[in-house]
Amino acid sequence: MDKLIKNHLKGKKVLLLFLLTNFVYGFMLLVTIPKVMSFSNGIKLLDMMPIGYNTEYVNTLFNTLGEKGRFLYLYRQIPIDMVYPFLFGVSYFLILAYFLNKLNKLKSPFYYLCFLPIIAGIFDYFENIGIIFMLSNYPSYSQNLIMSTNLFTIIKSITTSIYFMILIVVLILVGIKNFKLKTEFKSF
Prior knowledge:
elongated; mainly alpha; 0% strand
């Protein structure tokens, strides 16, 4: 595993994967999500609700979307969102690993923080599967399905938020290290 990670910690590979991941994310934000939301009267889609939702919210959203909006959600947005969690998990794992390596902390317990985006990606898949079941069985979905999908959404959001807070701290530490190296080099 260490060798596999080290082979992919090249700056260009990490950057390329980051760009690909964010291209897919941008496509969802600029194309598929707005297309579905054009049928929602401004009601946010379930995957865009970081603090969760309840049965009433799901029913309101799905009723408001109508048949065409639900179709677009299920057959346009969700397929793209089935690619994104994998890309997010792998690329953001490598991004944090890349910067931890710059701090010489990759072989420390901090390494395990790199798995946060993979965990978020797994819960994003669980969330997507729940949404697929709800959309496919509309209007006959269970309260348990809504509650479990909601839980997956919340766990995905919390894990993602924690990851980005950690990444910001690591980037600041890399910046401080680089600043110190430059000032030490100038003093010679």
